């Protein structure tokens, strides 16, 4: 059967935009190379026309130059067409990439929306308000506990504040009576009583010419008795 009807050939995959753009660029480069070669030939023919005299030889050179110029115009037209096609392919590629980016953005937004909806189902505004009220009650209760623990056991509750103010005023008067000049209390003033003088013997004047008193040494103290030597 395959020999009679043949085998269906598989279709080649369509080229992508990037492949078509690359192919167009290569063709454009080839056309540019051909145009450069024609420009070089035109320069050479122009120099020949300048060097030759008017006549059949010059006309032959001009004919060759006209043929090269027509080829150049043809290649320039092809190059412009290739540039336009390449520009269109680039626009299509840009639009395609934009669509792909939009699809990815939509997929990411759908996933985020689904996740956000699932999260919002677990949160209720009534539960949040209830939790806030409970937190405020706990804070107030904690403050009451701290205030209760901070009370002093030694101070009775039935103390008269007026009586305390009277005692404070009396204490201030007592302290004011002890103050002297310059508003300094007496117990902070320096001691003004003179210290008692010590009666010490006077130091020797150091003069050796004056005779010393009998029974007193050179420092003013009683002289020690000297032992008598027997002969």
UniProtKB/TrEMBL annotation:
The lineage of its organism: Eukaryota, Viridiplantae, Streptophyta, Embryophyta, Marchantiophyta. Residues 1-30, 174-231 are annotated as: Disordered. InterPro entries: Snf7_fam. Residues 202-213 have a biased composition (Polar residues). Residues 20-30 have a biased composition (Basic and acidic residues). Coiled coil: none annotated. Gene3D superfamilies: 6.10.250.1710, ESAT-6-like (1.10.287.1060). Belongs to the SNF7 family. Keywords: Coiled coil. This is Charged multivesicular body protein 5. It comes from the Eukaryota.
């Amino acid at each position: 059967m395959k020999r009679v009807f043949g085998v269906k050939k598989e279709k080649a995959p369509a080229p992508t935009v990037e492949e078509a753009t690359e192919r167009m660029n290569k063709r454009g480069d080839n056309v540019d190379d051909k145009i450069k070669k024609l420009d070089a030939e035109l320069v050479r023919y122009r120099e020949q026309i300048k060097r030759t005299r008017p006549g059949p030889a010059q006309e032959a050179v001009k004919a060759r130059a006209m043929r090269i110029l027509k080829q150049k115009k043809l290649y320039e037209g092809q190059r412009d067409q290739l540039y336009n096609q390449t520009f269109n392919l680039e626009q299509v590629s840009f639009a395609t990439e934009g669509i792909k980016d939009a699809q990815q953005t939509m997929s990411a937004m759908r996933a985020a929306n689904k996740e956000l909806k699932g999260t919002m189902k677990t949160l209720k505004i009534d539960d949040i308000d209830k939790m806030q009220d409970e937190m405020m009650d706990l804070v107030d209760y904690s403050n009451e506990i701290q205030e209760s623990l901070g009370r002093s056991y030694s101070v009775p509750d039935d103390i008269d504040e007026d009586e305390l103010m009277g005692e404070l005023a009396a204490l201030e008067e007592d302290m004011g009576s002890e103050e002297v000049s310059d508003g300094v209390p007496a117990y902070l003033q320096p001691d003004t009583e003179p210290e008692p003088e010590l009666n010490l013997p006077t130091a020797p004047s150091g003069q050796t010419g004056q005779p010393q008193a009998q029974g007193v040494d050179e420092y003013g103290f009683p002289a020690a008795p000297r032992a008598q030597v027997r002969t």
